């Protein structure tokens, strides 16, 4: 089979790394890829925004299956475009991808199908939002409706902050049209975890649970990032809870989308808050998480290709997945300044000596090859990933490696997985 992976981050490197192990795969292209992906696939310089360019490439190169990493091309209709040309592609179409692309769409689905989530109201007028916030008080969460690169969610402890958040979204239009509508949502307390599942629109195949670390600094302090690290599985998600999430959240969402005329195919990602009243949905994403993919996919024992094919062909119920025992950990090494402005082109040292280690990979995110040297090319640079019999061992392996990789300004969280260690005492 000839495969095209769309994207160029750590998640896409993980997908390429896994797909390369399949005996069913002859050739992998990745657009645009990065310096690490270039070692496992042929990178082609087509941007993820160039949907037509990607479709033309897939047609010309006779690609048998395209796998889309990021949400933007999905929300913009890459799947619809490929399907019009008769090309096979893994991911939800434009209508279904609204599950992530519009928080209002996702909330309305959850209410309609009794999926547990925070109380909320939708507003199109800043004055009405302000009045409502004054009435209900704080803490409160303000969310821009559309895609805002993970920055459209503002948690407000004080009323003043909440009013400023409304202004930022609706009057200053910090996120453009993504802020045409906003949601004012009940603040939920608890620990977070994610459950991702494959779905063909009818049945689901859940993956192992995982936990991301969104804030930039240790102890969950500082501004949110795309994710500074992850581990899987999340022991907080017991088998009983996983079953509850499947039955009360994932299946109703998939069935609800189908009943509403938006059949959903691809990966459905439920971001969950474990509240005193049980797990509630924080958000749905329409793709693999990044860095959740980096810890979930290495634990998948089965070949990924037959699963992706079954999803695309609408026969997922025929397929089973096997998972490795043990835990996986990914620690993200980021550029100095990230998630704010950062420099690119900084030389990375220490990558060569990581090669060949067992149950270990350095997934590349923002990297590029500059005249034979690997340099930084983004905010999140590397996802140092390892897996072992248990979480403490995986952590030890990964942090030892992190300490031997260097680039000017590099920073990373030192407490990835700490919240789960209580389960291993
Ligand atoms: P989202 O992109 O909707 O997942 O939000 C980003 C992050 O904001 C989540 O991972 C949570 O940490 C936090 N968050 C979002 N909604 C809520 C809420 N209702 N209560 C508490 N925290 C929230
Ligand atoms: N790591 C969070 C996400 O992929 O949305």
Summary tags:
single chain; 425 residues; alpha+beta; Rossmann fold; Dna Ligase, domain 1; D-amino Acid Aminotransferase, Chain A, domain 1; 5-stranded parallel beta sheet; globular; binds adenosine monophosphate; binds glycine
Q: Can you offer a commentary on this structure?
A:
It is a single chain. The chain is α+β, with helices and mostly antiparallel strands. It has helices spanning 10-20, 51-60, 71-75, 78-84, 98-101, 103-112, 126-136, 159-171, 239-259, 292-296, 304-312, 391-403, and strands at 2-7, 27-32, 42-43, 65-68, 89-90, 120-123, 140-144, 153-156, 182-186, 191-199, 204-206, 211-212, 215-217, 221-224, 229-232, 266-275, 278-285, 327-334, 360-364, 367-370, 373-376, 380-388. Helices cover 28% and strands 26% of the residues. The protein has twelve helices and 22 strands. The strands form six sheets. A five-stranded parallel β-sheet has the order 3-2-1-4-5. Strands 12-15-18-22-19 form a five-stranded antiparallel β-sheet. The protein has a four-stranded antiparallel β-sheet with strand order 6-9-7-8, sandwiched between helices. The termini are far apart. The protein has four domains: 2-93, 3-Layer(aba) Sandwich (Rossmann fold), CATH 3.40.50; 119-186, Dna Ligase, domain 1 (2-Layer Sandwich), CATH 3.30.1490; 191-318, D-amino Acid Aminotransferase, Chain A, domain 1 (2-Layer Sandwich); 327-424, Phosphoribosylglycinamide synthetase, C-terminal domain (Glycinamide Ribonucleotide Synthetase, Chain A, domain 4). Glycine binds next to loops.
């Amino acid at each position: 089979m000839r495969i095209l992976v769309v994207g160029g981050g750590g998640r896409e490197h993980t997908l390429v790394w896994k797909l390369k192990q399949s005996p069913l795969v002859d050739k992998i292209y990745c657009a645009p890829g990065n310096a690490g992906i270039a070692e496992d696939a042929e990178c082609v310089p087509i941007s993820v925004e160039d949907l037509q360019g990607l479709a033309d490439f897939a047609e010309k190169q006779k690609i048998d299956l395209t796998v889309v990493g990021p949400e933007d091309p999905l929300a913009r209709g890459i799947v619809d475009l490929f399907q019009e040309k008769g090309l096979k592609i893994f991911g939800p179409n434009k209508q279904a991808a609204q599950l992530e692309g519009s928080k209002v769409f996702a909330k309305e689905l959850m209410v309609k199908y009794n999926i547990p989530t925070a109380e909320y109201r939708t507003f199109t007028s800043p004055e009405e939002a302000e009045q409502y916030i004054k009435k209900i008080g704080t803490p409160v969460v303000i969310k821009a409706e559309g895609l805002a690169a993970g920055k459209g969610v503002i948690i407000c402890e004080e009323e003043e902050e909440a009013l400023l958040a409304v202004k930022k979204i609706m009057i200053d239009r910090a996120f453009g049209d993504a802020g045409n509508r906003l949601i004012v949502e009940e603040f939920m307390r608890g620990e977070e975890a994610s459950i991702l599942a494959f779905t063909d629109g009818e049945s689901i195949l859940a993956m192992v649970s995982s936990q991301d670390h969104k804030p930039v600094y240790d102890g969950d302090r500082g501004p949110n990032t795309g994710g500074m690290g992850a581990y899987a599985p999340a022991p907080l998600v017991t088998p009983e809870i996983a079953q509850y999430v499947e039955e009360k959240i994932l299946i109703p969402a998939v069935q609800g989308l189908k009943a509403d005329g938006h059949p959903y195919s691809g990966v459905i990602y439920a971001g969950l808050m474990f509240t005193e009243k049980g797990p509630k949905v924080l958000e749905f994403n329409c793709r693999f998480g990044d860095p959740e993919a980096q810890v979930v996919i290495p634990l998948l024992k089965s070949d990924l290709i037959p699963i992706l094919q079954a999803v695309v062909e609408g026969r997922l119920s025929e397929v089973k997945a096997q998972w490795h025992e043990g835990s996986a950990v990914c620690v993200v090494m980021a550029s100095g300044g990230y998630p704010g402005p950062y420099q690119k082109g900084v030389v990375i040292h220490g990558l060569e000596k990581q090669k060949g280690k067992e149950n270990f990979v350095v997934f590349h995110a923002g990297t590029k090859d500059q005249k034979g040297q690997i340099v930084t090319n983004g905010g999140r640079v590397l996802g140092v990933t390892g897996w072992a019999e248990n979480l403490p061992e995986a952590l030890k392996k990964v942090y030892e490696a992190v300490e031997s990789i260097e680039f000017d300004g590099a920073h990373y969280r030192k407490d990835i997985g700490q919240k789960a260690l209580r389960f291993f005492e």
